[in-house]
Structure formats: C-alpha cells, structure tokens
Design a protein that fits this description.
The chain contains 11 helices and 14 strands. The protein is of the alpha+beta class.
Length: 348
C-alpha cells in the first residue's frame, strides 16, 4: 500500500513540475509579445509568414522561432555546401560571437545556432554538450578551413547573452606517438563487462563501445572512429526512430605527419542495422553480403594543415564524456573513472 502511495506521490510531483514548466513557457511568451510581434513584421517583409505557433520559449535558450528552412530564407547570401555545412570563417565575418554564448551567432535581429545534434542527447531543448562547441567556436588558426552545420529550422530572437552554463570536466587525451608508426588496424573498445548497465550510464555516459580503424593509401593515413551508445539512446528523425552514432573521419599526410582533414557526423541506424553494426567492426560490410548503409548527417569539417594535438583535442571534445577515448590514446582511464569503477565493484 505504501509503495502505491509513493508512486502516486511521484506522479503528482511530475505532473506539478510539468504544469509549472508549461506556465513558465506561456508566461515568457506573454512577457515577450512585443518582441514576437515585431519579429513577425520583420519576417513578413522577407516573405516569411509566421504565426504564434512558430514561437516557443526554451529555458536553456530563450525565445525561439521554429520554421522549416528559416535560416536560408533569412540569409540567402549564405551558402550551404554539398555536405549541408557552412563556412565558419564567413559566419565569423557576418555575425558576432560572445564569450559566454558559445554555439550562437548574433545578427541585429536574431541569433543563429549550431545544429541541435551538438546538444546533449541530441535534443533541441538541451544545452550544447561541453566542450566541443566551445572549442570549435574558438578556432583562430588560419590554416584550418572550418565548416559546421547550423540549426537551419530555428533562430533565437532575444538578443541578450543570457543562457544556462554547464560545467563539465574533460581532459583532452594525450597522444604523443608518430601516427606514421600506427599500423593499419581495427580496434574495438568497450566498458568493463562486469559493470551493470546503470553504472555504464553513470560512469561512461551510456556509451556501449568505440570502434577505431586506421588505414593507409597513396601517402594518406586515414582514421575512422564510431561511437555506439546503449539501446535506450534513440532519436526521432523524419518521423522514424533511429539509433544515433557519432562518427569521425580524418586524413593525415604520411610524409609530414600533419592532419589535413577532419569531419564529424551522426550515423542513423534502424534497430537491425544498429545491433548488427554495434556488435561487429568497421569491416562489417566487407565480411557480410548484407551491407549496412544507414543515413547520416555531417556536422562539421576542418580542412587545412594542423597538428596531431589539435586533431586529438577535436576528437576528444566531439566524443565528450566518453572515457573510452582515454583508454585508446592513453592506455588507461582517467583516475576519476578508475575510482568510480572500484567504488562500484566494492559495493557488490
């Protein structure tokens, strides 16, 4: 009986929180009605018909306009390349950036945002995952030609720099070996098999495994990495449920040992594809007649010539919260991860 009562109390609590959240959203929209009406007129002059349903308040972001393809409509002068990315140097020249607002590009009327798949759990309401966007936003090296995916369907219209800040500790992986000495090979790294799923979620951020492949051809050494998460991580894309996996691809000049290309994407797998690919390796399509060709969305690319250290920093930040990166590049987990694993094992 007491258990049933506790469950009912929890339900009431969740319902109260949800109602409070909805009231906050409505209240914020009412308080900003003048700003919203002003933006409707601005958009109408550009041939974009907005109504009240196109506006929402998101606590982590602000007042947001939702409209399919609104960014290209607002800025036809900006070019989206064949990968669905924009030249970051051009974005920097046309929009302002603020130190406390990483991931946002300010104009006089609205703010463009980095793609929602850079946010926690790939959800458009969450904050950007520390600290990849912070690192990307600070690019100043003229030798790097950087491109990035934006949130093309949404813009923020409150022009202040307020926002939620999340602190996250992530120590960039150290990698001192000459990449020319790395043999062509495939690696698959996973959390300790004796850890229960809930502890993997707690300690490893829900990462199931990390696949890595090195290959060489015609003076170019190629790196690939794909991060698989546990089955409960799913997203809806075009009305269908998919299992998302972060994917990285890089190329190195064997003669110079310098990186000349890095791009990152999200791969989308249906359940059968996810289970088959997750439990195999990068050579799955070579070894099996039923090839997996899931959908994908490129999120960024960096061309030019830059050091292994810069490359490693971007890899570590893109795979944020994944201690398996440390295991691969450092040969062991960070001390805090080892301490957590030992603590969990001691209470069994």
């Amino acid at each position: 009986m007491s258990s049933q009562k506790n469950d009912e109390e929890k339900e009431d609590s969740f319902e109260n929180l949800e109602n409070k959240r909805k009231l906050e959203m409505v209240s914020e929209l009412i308080e900003n009605v003048e700003l919203i009406e002003k933006y409707k007129l601005y958009a109408a002059n550009l041939g974009i018909a907005l109504n009240d349903s196109n506006f929402e308040f998101i606590p982590t972001t602000g007042i947001v306009v939702n409209y399919p393809g609104i960014v290209p409509l607002l800025h036809p002068e900006l070019t989206i390349d064949q990968d669905g990315l924009m030249d970051y140097s051009i974005l920097q020249s046309k929009f302002k950036r603020h130190f406390f607002a990483k991931g946002y590009l300010y104009s006089d009327t609205h703010i463009l945002m980095a793609h929602p798949y850079f946010r926690r759990s790939y959800h458009p309401w969450n904050n950007f995952s520390p600290r990849f966007i912070e690192y990307f936003w600070s690019i100043t090296d003229p030798n790097i030609q950087a491109h990035i995916a934006l949130d093309y369907d949404r813009v923020r219209i409150n022009l202040d720099t307020n926002g939620y800040m999340e602190l996250d500790t992530w120590y960039g992986p150290k990698f001192n070996k000459d990449i020319r000495e790395i043999p062509d090979s495939i690696s698959k790294i996973a959390p300790p098999l004796d850890l229960l799923e809930r502890y993997i979620e707690l300690i490893f951020g829900g990462v199931h495994s990390l696949d890595i492949k090195w290959s060489s051809r015609q003076g170019i050494k190629t790196f690939q990495a794909e991060e698989f998460r546990q089955e409960q991580t799913m997203i809806v894309r075009n009305g269908l449920e998919y299992y998302p996996s972060k994917y990285l691809h890089a190329e190195f000049d064997i003669q110079t040992g310098m990186c000349n290309h890095l791009d990152g994407a999200i791969h989308f797998y249906n359940k059968d594809e996810y289970l088959a690919r997750r439990d195999s390796d990068f050579n799955y399509n070579i070894k099996n007649s039923g090839h997996i060709k899931g959908d994908s969305l490129k999120l960024f690319k960096l061309n030019g010539e830059y050091t292994v250290e810069i490359w490693m920093e971007f890899v570590g930040q893109f795979l944020t919260g994944n201690p398996l990166v440390f295991e691969y590049f450092d040969g062991q987990y960070p001390d805090y991860v080892l301490e957590r694993i030992e603590r969990v094992r001691s209470i069994r």
